[in-house]
Amino acid sequence: MSAPEGTPIRAIDVIRKKRDGGELTRAEIEALVGGYTAGAIPDYQASAWLMATLLKGMTRAETAALTDTMLHSGEVLDFSDLHSRKVDKHSTGGVGDKTSLVLAPLAAAGGLTVPMISGRGLGHTGGTLDKLEAIPGFNVNLPVAEFRRILETCGCAMIGQTAEIAPADRKLYALRDVTGTVESPFLICASIMSKKLAEGIDALVLDVKTGSGAFMKNEKDAAYLAELMVETGERMGKKMAALITDMDQPLGCFVGNALEVVEVLDVLRGEGPEDLRDLCLELAAWMFLLGGSVSSVEEGKKLSEKLIRSGEALEKFRKMVALQGGDARVVDDPKLLPQAKQKMDVVSAKAGYVTAIQCERAGTACVILGGGRERKEDSVDPAVGFVLHKKVGDSVSSGESLCTLHYNSEALGARAKAMLLESFEIGSAPPKHKRPLVHRVITKSGEKS
Amino acid sequence: MSAPEGTPIRAIDVIRKKRDGGELTRAEIEALVGGYTAGAIPDYQASAWLMATLLKGMTRAETAALTDTMLHSGEVLDFSDLHSRKVDKHSTGGVGDKTSLVLAPLAAAGGLTVPMISGRGLGHTGGTLDKLEAIPGFNVNLPVAEFRRILETCGCAMIGQTAEIAPADRKLYALRDVTGTVESPFLICASIMSKKLAEGIDALVLDVKTGSGAFMKNEKDAAYLAELMVETGERMGKKMAALITDMDQPLGCFVGNALEVVEVLDVLRGEGPEDLRDLCLELAAWMFLLGGSVSSVEEGKKLSEKLIRSGEALEKFRKMVALQGGDARVVDDPKLLPQAKQKMDVVSAKAGYVTAIQCERAGTACVILGGGRERKEDSVDPAVGFVLHKKVGDSVSSGESLCTLHYNSEALGARAKAMLLESFEIGSAPPKHKRPLVHRVITKSGEKS
For residue range B171-187, what is the model confidence (pLDDT) as tens digits? Predict the structure, then answer.
């Protein structure tokens, strides 16, 4: 039963309605989330509502209303005066996932505008901001006016969330983190989409990870979240596509902030490992397709390859680094990036084939070295990490190096080594089924495999 | 997965475990509830846990552990030096439910000790403390030493909850009230039982109400709560019985604090309406049975009738009133109780039979008059209320009085009159099925009808 018009909506009634499985109206969601952001509704009522929402779910209309409420809780950037299409990519996070650093300059080289607002690493996954900050001088904390100026000049810019963007999400996320209410696809969708739509974009490509290194361990959960985000974005007038991609082993071979920048430069030079390169081409192709630059994914891939081959993508990266205050010399001389004091090989005790790399464990090894954070307030060591020499399916002989650790502390190095050794599974034969890089693509018109 | 021994239990892990439908250990419940009571766990974590508990439920072992944790959060009274059996009765609340005021002196007259700690009215239901305070001078706020002295002298005493008793319940209840987490049978059970067991009793008779004036509108919910409380009490070594009794119309004919004291005196004199008298005899019989004074319910009823006939129960009431500072002359002269300034009849517009009295509405009419409270901090007017002349099944002619309102404000009188008129349903024939006074009895050995 809805309250008659004009009656103020009470938080307790909204909580009870959701608790009993009801569908909240837009006004009820606005009253609760708006009231909470403004400080009129206390934490304990918001957390009861969050738990009821996690356990009872939300309809698509509720999810869109929540996203919209959170989006409009703060500043929504407006780049409508820029004539090119504004397109971004968002990943749900993984280990060795450095595609953003390739995609922003690559898409910009192809004429799109990429106003990318990213996050930091948390738990076993890395974060784009931490990777960028491995470049000496690179400033991710730009005021909106400066962000706009760089976008106009360069076509891409990469910054961190500002205090003005989606304050409702910042407040709700902090509460979810301590009340066991993170793992709701509806709340995750609203959190991601409210921040991304605040960038003032026309289109968004989602990279939803699945596998042992992803937050969504199984493909079904990943696809559910992907569909929810695609539908929510489309309800709000955005072009959307979601790729469910593999995160059952680290992406590429380099894990750790400065190390990942090295691999990004490799890809931008037309080198680098196949899986990382292929995923970047696929995601860039979708960005070009949604941005209207091409009329098919294949055409988008060809355009992306051309932009890499010609060096235009790499030049865009160099320009962005310089404009954001970073030392652009790292592009030609990656040795200028922070270097760990010591290296050590992690060798296999037996011969056989790598049948799996427990990806969350591998990511945790990097956190142990100091390359990630267990708590938000931790700082990261940009130099540490590891380089994989073997990936799933590779043969390995006894005593051969599986990966090389880059570390700054003997004690932490020893712990990370043990963790990495544990993460490798060696069998007598390669795995029968190779996991695909892209599991499926979800768009408005339905799924495509 | 339980944490290894010695590891401190984190609230977030307890919340997540319950959210995912797990069974909490006693240590986990103690960590959460104890931590919350001590102020170490914030409101927002407790409310997330409460909502997860409401939606995911609790096992019997968890319910007992929660009850025990809440019970031992404060003082547990110890009357083991008193030689008679300590027996109490608890009602889940209703309209016109004044049985406690009959039962305490009646059971004490039969040799039991009744250390009754009661509550105030809230919402449409009345509260024992408000009724007692209608007696001029009656003091329900006694220190424990004084409570004990009166129990030793008189065998019964009736007070309000002290700050020392089950502080965890007081804190949790306040939070449940504002977070939509009141309506969980597990949380209700722990709340009621922790307070009742703090009285240091050997046995407890539960009067679980069902019908339009009860919190549990349907019998299934009432029986579920009753079974839960019986099992929880028995797990904690108490003799338990629960009667599921009717609250589909007000109990007796008098509703309102002073008016109900008048009807209590009627019953203690062997008069009063049949339903109220029968229920008092039934509940007293179970108190005597659980207290070991008799060997059957029938025998208990006979003992109760005898104690009323002999005047012993009434004398016990007079003694308790005097010992608690009240004006005992009201026993012989009920006119000394607060009197409303005005009276008015609520007459039926048509002839027929009373087919139903919407009991929650009838109770709300008393609240409107000032006889109850909508918020905890409201005060009550002891004089107001109403006296029913017609109950379900009675024939009524057009223009005949259904009830008499006792009121102190014209405006409130008019509103209460409209509300009461609405609560009466008049049909052309009496209802086919008469609802029983006692729907069922639930004891350890199973149900008895």
Answer: 999 999 899 999 999 99
User: Counting Cβ atoms within 10 Å, is residue B270 exposed (0-12), middle (13-18) or buried (19+)?
Assistant: middle
Angle (CA) A349 A96 A442, round 5°: 120
Say yes or no for a CB contact (<8 Å) between B42 and A45.
no
8 Å CB contact of A179 and B50: no
How high is the ipTM of this complex?
A: 0.86
B175: nearest CA partner in chain A: A44
Q: Does B415 lie in the same domain as B291? A: no
Question: Is A72 part of a structural domain of the chain?
Answer: no
CA distances from B16 to A43, B140, B187 (A): 18, 42, 18
B90 labelled catalytic: yes
Domain of residue B93: give its range: 87-333+438-444
CA-to-CA distance for A252 and A357, rounded, in angstroms? 13
Handedness of CA B217, B220, B226, B228 (dihedral sign): negative
Active site residue B350: no
Q: What is the pTM of this model?
A: 0.88
Q: Tokens 């009870």 belong to which residue?
A: A16
* CATH code for position A26: 1.20.970.10
Other C-beta atoms closer than 10 Å to the C-beta of A326 total 22
Residue A432: Cβ within 10 Å count: 6
Is B248 labeled as catalytic in the residue annotation?
no
Range list of H helices, A247-352 = 257-268, 274-290, 297-309, 312-323
Separation between Cα atoms, residue A357 and residue A313, nearest integer Å: 31
Looking at the fold, whether A103 and A212 belong to one and the same domain comes out as yes
User: Is B261 inside a domain boundary?
Assistant: yes
Q: Where are the alpha helices (DSSP H) in B335-409?
A: 359-369
* Chain A residues near residue B47 by CB distance under 8 angstroms: 44-45, 47-48, 51
Residue range B41-89, pLDDT digits in tens: 999 999 999 999 999 999 999 999 999 999 999 999 999 999 899 999 9
Burial of A397 (0-12, 13-18, 19+ CB in 10 A): exposed
Instruction: State the CATH number of the domain containing residue B394.
Output: 3.90.1170.30
